[in-house]
# Entry
Amino acid sequence: MLQCNCSIMGDETTREAIVVDPGDDIEAIQAILQRHGLRLTSIVITHAHIDHIGGAKKLKDLTGAPLYLNELDMDLYRIMDEQASFLGTPPPQTANVDVFLREGEEVRCGEIRASVIHTPGHSPGSVCLLVPDGKETKLIAGDTLFRESIGRTDLWGGNSRNILMSLKEKLLPLEDNIVVVPGHGPLTTIGHEREYNPFLQAF
Ligand SMILES: [Zn+2]
# Structure
């Protein structure tokens, strides 16, 4: 319903895969994994909003892959019922979180190395993943950075000062040619956001 972007990354040699933010449509995710002969080894959640995590239990039950989330979003994770009633949807079942994502750590999958950047603000435990891929590096940004916008901070645990600090100190120092995969909406680049994002012009 909320059109969350889900990322699937697979290693060409080991055929292992990471899925980031399985909000819903688990059948579609499974079909992609199957089509590419991939075995899911990690389910990574950028933050514990229902539209990013709603399908995680189903996917975990089907694949046995461990679930990753930053510890500071556990309070948010525990109020999935409240989040669901806020949206007027039935509450999803929740799975146990297996691994806490921490700043500077990596989620590995074959040759893929996704570095965790803790970017509090949209939620206390929001993280981005920086994923080098040959010549092109991608930033999976969750709801911290969108094309010419940023995440809202009026929901549970949101903090507008913190999101601006995260953007300034953690994301803007990244290189211009990095491709940003936001949690919603079209792709962008760090360079485009540096130039055109109205929220970043004060820095
Ligand atoms: Zn969100």
Summary: The mean pLDDT is 95. The first strand starts at residue 7 and ends at 10. The CA atoms of residues 108 and 114 lie 6 Å apart.
